[in-house]
Design a protein that fits this description.
Number of strands: 12
GO biological process, one term: shikimate metabolic process
Number of helices: 9
Organism: Colocasia esculenta
Distance between the termini: 58 Å
CATH topology of the largest domain: Rossmann fold
Strand content: 15-25%
CATH architecture of the largest domain: 3-Layer(aba) Sandwich
Helix content: 25-40%
GO molecular function, one term: shikimate 3-dehydrogenase (NADP+) activity
InterPro entries: Aldolase_TIM, Aminoacid_DH-like_N_sf, DHquinase_I, NAD(P)-bd_dom_sf, Shikimate_DH-bd_N, Shikimate_DH_fam, Shikm_DH/Glu-tRNA_Rdtase
Bound molecules: NADP nicotinamide-adenine-dinucleotide phosphate
CATH superfamily of the largest domain: Leucine Dehydrogenase, chain A, domain 1
Strand order of the largest sheet: 4-3-5-7-8-6
Largest sheet: 6 strands, mixed
Protein name: Shikimate dehydrogenase
């Protein structure tokens, strides 16, 4: 069919994520209403706007742009054609596609879009998984409230703040005080869960069991010293899981008060980061870093103080 006009709407997300989603909604709603009359392209620039480029077929956008080779973008925030086709599988996205995604800041480092969109595709689930760069999680959820946005993962730094945004919180997530998985029920209500603690703890248990993987009678963590650096969402999940498995838990955190509060809630001990300098490791102990130090791209970073006796203990 001959298309007489294509209207292009571009906008910059200069105002953080409060105005960005409103802006996206306007574009998407506009596209929905007008798409049968006027072909439209609605795109938001920069990293925050990546979802508008990926979800264009879902909301009726006429086309989206991508760059053939990373580093040669003609506008800020353009994905590569390879990412659109292979990571987000844009050819599978249609009006019925459900949208899942990771809420975080930063979020661009995450491998989840690749992993989960691939999992949806290989199991025949009509869904896509995208990154949401979010400043304020309550504002974000109040705008991204349609059933199209079927569920979320949540990471740094929102795992604790998002608990209050859920209509219902699973009892374990409530005890931990952090939510990393949110499901939108058919009635629109959000239900929060914590899957970090099972994921992290079972991975550590499997590694410790090694070739004795079938010996699942007792946890290898039982009675062990388990030192957790960090007292945020991930630290809380690990502390809860380690306590459940009978480990002796010690929390060390930059903000000592948070270490103390978490240690009290799991019946453990608290340390400041500086105190780790004189900490004497114990045979078979586990040391887990749950801080943001060591995240991509600064993967050699460590929260351990220089000269600590823990230097020889591998960080989990
Ligand atoms: N692989 C996974 O499945 C998985 C799952 C969950 C989380 N994570 C990772 O875990 C990390 C933390 O996530 P989160 O959700 O727990 O974040 P969070 O709730 O924001 O907690 C961040 C923690 O890092 C500490 N921290 C931040 N900057 C620091 C610095 N400059 N020096 C020392 N400590 C510092 C904070 O200490 P204060 O209390 O002093 O601020 C706090 O304990 C992230 O890298 C996240 O990607 C991975």
């Amino acid at each position: 069919m001959f298309l007489p006009f294509i209207y292009s709407l571009y906008t910059y997300s200069l105002f953080g994520d409060f105005l960005l989603p409103i802006c996206l909604e306007l574009l998407f709603c506009g596209l929905k209403k007008l798409k049968h009359q006027i072909p439209m392209i609605g795109l938001v620039m920069r990293e925050r706007g990546l979802i508008s480029r990926i979800l264009c077929p879902k909301f009726g956008g006429y086309l989206t742009f991508a760059v053939l080779e990373g580093g040669k973008e003609s506008a800020s925030g353009q994905p590569t054609t390879s990412d659109l086709l292979n990571v987000y599988k844009i050819r599978r996205i249609g009006t019925d596609t459900r949208i899942y995604g990771l809420i975080g800041k930063p979020v661009g480092y995450s491998k989840s879009p690749f992993l989960l969109t691939e999992a949806f595709s290989s199991t025949g689930v009509n869904a896509v998984y995208v990154p949401y760069l979010v400043d304020d999680v309550a504002d974000f959820l109040s705008v991204y409230s349609s059933p199209d946005f079927a569920g979320f993962s949540c990471t740094i730094p929102h795992k604790e703040a998002i608990v209050k945004c859920c209509s219902e919180v699973d009892p374990i997530a409530k005890s931990i005080g952090a939510v990393n998985t949110i499901v939108r029920r058919p009635d629109g209500n959000l239900v929060g869960y914590n899957t970090d603690y099972t994921g992290a703890i079972s991975a550590i248990e499997d590694a410790m069991r090694g070739s004795h993987a079938n010996d699942s009678s007792a946890s290898p963590l039982s009675g062990r010293l388990f030192v957790i650096i960090g007292a945020g969402g991930a630290g809380k999940a690990l502390a809860y899981g380690a306590k459940e498995k009978g480990a002796k838990v010690i929390i060390a955190n930059r903000t000592f008060d948070r270490a103390r509060d978490l240690a009290m809630s799991v019946g453990g001990d608290a340390l400041s980061l500086a105190e780790l300098e004189s900490f004497h490791p114990e045979g078979g102990m586990i040391l887990a870093n749950t801080t943001s130090i060591g995240m991509q791209p600064n993967i050699d970073g460590t929260p351990l103080p220089k000269g600590t006796g823990l230097a020889g203990v591998a960080l989990t």
